[in-house]
Amino acid sequence: MMHIFKPKQLQNDITQLFEHAGVSQQEAQQVAENLVLSNLSGHDSHGVGMAPRYMDAISEKRLVPGAKVTAHIDHGCLLGLNGQGGFGQVVGFEAMQRAFEKVRTEGACIMSLSNAHHLGRIGHFAEMAVAQGWISIHFVNVLSRPVVAAFQAGDGRFGTNPCCIGIPIGMQDLSLNKPFILDFATSAVAQGKMRVAHNLGLSAKPGLLIDENGLPTTRPSVVVKAQSNGKFGALLTFGEHKGSGLAIACELLGGALSGGGTWRKEANSARAVMNGMLSIVIDPKAMGQEDFFYPETQAFIDWLKQSPPEPGTPGLILAGEPERQARLERARGLEIDEATHNELKASALKVGATGLFQI
Fold first, then answer.
1. What is the structure's pLDDT at 199?
2. Lesser CB count within 10 Å: N end or C end of the chain?
3. CA nearest neighbour of 69 among 95, 49, 48
4. How does pLDDT run across 170-207, given as a tens digit for each residue?
5. What three-state secondary structure class fits 124?
6. In degrees to the nearest 10, what's the CA dihedral of 351, 84, 113, 75?
7. Pure H helices in 160-289
8. Which residues contact residue 241 at a Cβ distance below 8 angstroms, ignoring those fewer than 6 apart?
9. Closest CA to 106 of 78, 138, 136
10. Dist. CA 247–CA 226, nearest whole Å
11. Hey, is 161 helix, strand or coil?
12. Rounded Cα distance, 148 and 161, in Å
């Protein structure tokens, strides 16, 4: 059974849920807006279904509401930040804003962020940059249960480690810009999508998962809950050795270079999800290519769009387009599956927030 919520109602309920956990109204609203935007963008895996996990992470005292970003490096175009365990949607936003200040004076910024709780959809940060007419590149590691197996390995050793690149397209008004936003987990599929599939009783496509014994499977449950032998299965990386290599690079850059650390221990039952991120933000004007770059990006996209569709497909779909289309289609209402709905209501009851998530 699916429950249909108006986006505004869902945002208000999530805000109140966090407020009952001691989160300030301003911070709770900022996180709720980000989670609902992920649902609106078609990424339910990073949407309101994460709220119960955030509530548990607060109880674990790993997620620290009200945490303030601190800087250990602030020199020239370099910025090294620590999120102090704060909401990723909050400390990540602040980190990007501080990086933007560097870009305005230096033309570019290399920024690392450690010790941030779950940053959510990384594409949101790329969208912030392209809204300024800038390029951004992000490498992120995930300190949580090691749910992804390296190429030709038989168990999980790291997280879904997303990579994201945002590029503005053309010279038009930035408010009308349709940027290229490439945002993807280096696993063959996001773990959250397997949680959603498990909740709906669906099977995964072949080639995405291995079970607790290292064998291929289509059961999403192997990465959602411990199996009969107490072990979990794992997601595979995309593109065999290529995706595996990029995932490892994200771990080393997002984890080791940021100072947040890499994952090097057995799985545990902790609900907190910590992220490290290395971000590079570039103003094309500072490269001396402003007059060439913007029209050239549009010319190349126009060239791509002239390609005829592959038979049996709708044709070329560029990174960023599915999210923009989803926001138009989902504005009327967001579907929340029964399991997620029950988890949200249970989280509300734990903190005495009665009357939330009612449909």
1. 87
2. N
3. 95
4. 876 666 679 999 999 999 998 888 988 998 899 999 99
5. helix
6. 150
7. 191-200, 241-251
8. 151
9. 78
10. 24
11. coil
12. 9
Number of neighbouring beta carbons within 10 Å of residue 142: 29
Q: Residue ranges of the alpha helices (H) in the chain?
A: 7-20, 25-40, 51-59, 88-106, 123-130, 191-200, 241-251, 290-305, 321-330, 338-350
Domains in the chain, start-ordered, CATH in brackets? 67-187+237-306 (3.30.1370.60), 190-235 (3.30.60.50)
- How far from each other are the two terminal CA atoms of the chain, in whole angstroms? 12
64 contacts 85 by C-beta, under 8 angstroms: yes
Low-confidence ranges of the chain (pLDDT < 70): 172-176
Q: So what's the pLDDT on residue 222?
A: 94
pTM, whole model, 2 decimals? 0.94
Distances (CA, A) of 153 to 67, 93, 140: 38, 35, 21
Structure tokens at 353: 């927030």
The predicted structure's pLDDT at residue 229 = 83
Q: Specify the pLDDT at position 191.
A: 83
Q: Which three-class secondary structure state does DSSP give residue 206? A: coil
Tokens of 111: 């920024």
Q: Are strands 209-210 and 234-236 parallel, antiparallel or unpaired?
A: antiparallel
Listed in sequence order, the residues at least 6 apart from 260 whose beta carbon sits closer than 8 Å to its beta carbon are 113, 114, 115, 116, 141, 143, 254, 274, 275, 276
Give 298: exposed, middle or buried? Use CB within 10 Å, 0-12, 13-18, 19+: middle
